[in-house]
Input
Amino acid sequence: MANNNENLNKASRAKKDEFYTQLVDIECELRHYKSFFKGKTVFCNCDDPYESNFVKYFAMNFNALGLKKLIATSYVSSPIVFTQLSFYQEKEKQYIKRDGCRPYLIELTEIRDENGDGAIDIGDFEKTIKKHPPKYLKGDGDFRSPECIELLKQADVVVTNPPFSLFREFIELLEKHGKKYIVIGNVNAITYKEVFPLIMQNRLWLGASIHSGDREFRVPDSYPLEAAGCRTDKSGIKFIRVKGVRWFTNVDYSARHDDLILYKHYSPNEYPVYDNYDAVEVNKTSEIPCDYNGTMGVPITFMDRYNPDQFEIVGATESEGKGFSNGLWNEASKVAQPLVKGERKYKRIFIKRRAANGNPT
Ligand SMILES: C[S@@+](CC[C@H](N)C(=O)[O-])C[C@H]1O[C@@H](n2cnc3c(N)ncnc32)[C@H](O)[C@@H]1O
Output
């Protein structure tokens, strides 16, 4: 029985790992970092070069961004989904038929205007890739494998949507190698023990473009259609809507330094002190009082509006991680979830206004 459950969990994890990012979502985020990419080596390390819209984005914008190099690697057990690169499906289908899902690598250092039409488009990418076809990897393409780590060492920045089930390990590895990254994850990852300390130290933050709602991802043909939020388009391609998606990055962008406009004033009635934390409860980010200088507990979606020049993050509720509250928790209460007059609240992040933003120095 335990084995059956384990297998089911594995299957469900694997399913969640096969969500393919749409080009429009990549474009909306990456336009905030355009000048950053100049002279950089970009590594898409969970990306089949024939399928990934990340690879497509960087190939088509190679010259406009002034990239030095684009590296992409695929993973052995990734199912094959041919995205919009339909013009070389036939050739590549044969290639894959011959060799199975053997993972491969592309390394591009230039994309020329092969068509001579004055613009770099997908046709130029196709011709470039024909001139410099992918090489096989020796191993399975796991981003943790020695071979992929050697490629990571060459890279300045990793940009991808990694497998959801390995998000913690993914961030840990990039941090260990001191890499810049712009990657997709779930909003709940904010309070992972591998992530939250970095957020507190202002070494990791949320990206610019996704702050609410859900996003549509392509899923493999084998994905069960009855899954909630699943649809099939006219050409039979399946998509699923996923809630709580966010970009996680350590690359700065200007919009994150815009102040959150506050309009409410503090009153002890409206902002009660927690029973078990030394802070006041603010149950909506938009209702943070403009004139309170003490510690406030806010929902984790505060991170969507967080300007590090305006606020300092001082901790989170102990329910998210032992020691996360940095002494704000009254341990004697024995309840880690925040309580207001005995009522349990959802997890909270603790914040304080910065000195330049109203706090006495
Ligand atoms: C969420 S999907 C995203 C795919 C692609 N990056 C995109 O955004 O369209 C994650 C991909 O990582 C692959 N993958 C799973 N485990 C991996 C691992 N250990 N190393 C590298 N890739 C892995 C999956 O097969 C899948 O193709």
About this structure: Residues 230 and 345 are 32 Å apart (CA to CA). Residues 2-254 form one domain. Residues 83-88, 94-99 have pLDDT under 50 and may be disordered.
